[in-house]
Design brief:
By secondary structure, this protein is α/β, with parallel strands linked by helices. The chain is built from 18 helices and 14 strands.
């Protein structure tokens, strides 16, 4: 897309920072601009600036975009006024900081709702419009350098959401390619520290994520984190010229847009570490004695969780089994008890924080310790972003990303206090390491997020000098599990009855058949549990089941690295502007 005059730009997070700068540049190029933000005063201020520049065709919508109905209504208002959307700058973001142990769960929830869910909802609404228009259009997804590197020990929330939004952009691009749609370009913006307004994110916190009485917000740790963010943002590179650079990326349909070439070495180091772990994708013998130790297994009634629990029982471990499928869970637990295994069965929904807290508390009360956490609960739907139901997005993100983070948050302090050897294995996927296939954005985004969370946890442990807890990521490709039966344990709040027409559609049925085919034709699950147990003794962070996927991982890595190598400096941008 290289013609902008008279076209329509929908800018989210438009009241400050990147959104404000992008809106001003869009108007300078003769575009009509729709400004969306949670802060009415901020976007009205931007509207005044635009009118001072002689731009009168501007609309504002003040709304909380983390609520799907608000997004749907806002996009409807834009279409009602302009009848088209040609550029989407998908930008709302907040940056709550805190390590996995100390950050309040509500801050993680808030980050997910704004940095990830709001972005997905907007894409669900805007992408079909752009496709139907059949005219040149572009989507600019705002991620971060924290979507390429981990966010450090205290950047868990931000890194998780930005890794996931990067995957989301990659999935959209793959969808367009798969469906031979060449009228729509996609870019993902991955900036480092730039002089925006991000350090003032607290003033945009919705009431449902507030609790001023929480000691964390008054702690010295939080104050230091806020000071760090403030200094980092204010001493970042100038915002001037960034919007011009973004429009150059739109014109060139550039995928990865970075701002700090200096991060190349760190990016390469991370990529090398991931690729190196592919070399350890082989079976080993179990040499550690696990007898009498305690394993907490989530998603324990089926698939990976079930075979892991069976192997743990064979190793003489005490088991705490958690699953939302009460009938299957209790039946499995009873069978294990008959063979002499000590088992605690807990019916719980991993996506509900209070239930996670209660389940971990119960395990600690009964057994007094937790030595292994197999953080495995997961679900899948298999619809592309154009057809995906928003409640399915919420369900998959809620279980696969949010729920797994909750369990790490609650179990890790117990393991730290024990000061004995312990392991956390979190089930991610090869879909957490390679771009989306244009078929399953919710799953890919959730698994990229779990990769980031685990890397942040690993960094936290390293900085704390804790060497007796090992964290690892299980990244399988297709294996014969029960994942294609996720529907059978869908929570009531995400019930199919909420939208029977959608779930009765041929597209939905086709997506379920595709998921079933992929799972049932995968490799056998037989040896996976022994593999996982042996891996707890190894050095790898990424446990790989399909070494042949390495080439796809490398292709993505080289594309990101090449984008970083070729990135324009700020001075190059200024020269272009002149």
């Amino acid at each position: 897309m290289d013609q902008f005059s008279g076209k329509v730009a929908l800018v989210t997070g438009a009241g400050n920072g990147f959104g404000k700068a992008f809106a001003l540049e869009a108007a300078r190029r003769g575009m009509k601009v729709a400004l969306l933000d949670i802060d009415q005063a901020d976007i009205e201020g931007v509207k005044v600036l635009l009118r001072q520049q002689g731009v009168n065709d501007v609309m504002t919508v003040a709304t909380d975009l983390s609520i799907y109905e608000n997004v749907k209504k806002a996009v409807g208002l834009v279409m009602e006024k302009y009848g088209q959307i040609d550029v989407l700058f998908n930008n709302p973001g907040v940056c709550p900081l805190g390590d996995i142990v100390h950050m309040p769960a509500r801050d993680f929830d808030w980050g997910i709702s704004i940095n990830l869910n709001a972005h997905a909802y907007m894409l669900m609404e805007v992408l079909p419009i752009m496709i139907k228009q059949k005219t040149p259009a572009h989507i600019m997804e705002v991620s971060s350098i924290a979507g390429i590197l981990h966010g450090g020990a205290t950047g868990t929330t931000y890194a998780a959401t930005k890794h996931a939004s990067l995957a989301l952009a990659e999935d959209v691009r793959a969808y367009l390619k798969r469906n031979h749609i060449d009228t729509i370009g996609v870019s993902v913006f991955c900036p480092g520290f730039i002089q925006t307004d991000l350090h003032h994110y607290e003033r945009h916190r919705p009431e449902r994520f507030r609790n001023e009485k929480d000691p964390f917000y008054h702690s010295e740790m939080n104050q230091k984190l806020q000071n760090f963010l403030s200094v980092s943002i204010q001493t970042g590179i100038p915002l001037d010229g960034i919007a011009f650079r973004l429009f150059k990326a739109i014109e060139q349909n550039q995928m990865y847009v970075l701002t700090h070439p200096k991060f190349l070495e760190k990016i390469q180091m991370r990529h090398h570490g991931i690729e190196k772990d592919f070399e350890t994708a082989e079976h080993r013998n179990i040499t550690v004695d696990y007898k009498g130790k305690v394993a907490l297994v989530t998603g324990a009634a089926h698939g990976f969780g079930k075979v892991f629990a069976e192997e743990a029982a064979a190793q003489g471990m005490k088991l705490a089994l958690v699953d939302i499928d009460k009938t299957a869970l209790e039946e499995f637990a009873e069978n294990l008890k008959k063979s002499g295994t000590e088992v605690l069965a807990i019916h719980s929904d991993a996506s509900v924080y209070e239930e996670v807290v209660e389940s971990v508390k119960k395990v600690k009360e009964i057994y007094g310790q937790i030595d292994v956490l197999f953080n495995n609960a997961g679900v899948a739907t298999s619809q592309d972003l154009v057809h995906l139901h928003h409640q399915d997005w919420d369900w998959v993100i809620g279980v696969n990303l949010v729920g797994q983070t909750y369990y790490m948050k609650e179990v890790l302090p117990i393991m730290i206090a024990q000061k004995t050897k312990a392991n956390i294995i979190t089930t991610s996927s090869i879909a957490g390491l390679i771009p989306g296939f244009g078929l399953n954005p919710s799953y890919s985004a959730s698994k990229h997020g779990t990769v980031a969370v685990t890397e942040c946890v690993k960094q936290y442990l390293e900085l704390a000098g804790i060497d007796y807890i090992k964290v690892a990521l299980f990244c399988p490709a297709f294996i014969q599990t029960n994942l294609h039966h996720s529907e059978s344990y869908r929570p009531a709040r995400f019930a199919i009855a909420n939208d029977p027409e959608h779930y009765a559609s041929e597209d939905y049925k086709d997506s379920q058949r595709r998921l079933e085919h992929n799972i049932t034709t995968g490799i056998p699950i037989d040896n996976v549990a022994k593999w996982l147990f042996a891996s707890m003794e190894g050095e790898e962070t990424y446990i790989i089941t399909h070494p042949e996927t390495l080439s796809a991982v490398q292709t993505r890595h080289r594309a990101i690295e090449d984008a970083c190598k070729s990135e324009l400096t700020l001075w190059d941008v200024y020269a272009l502007m002149d």
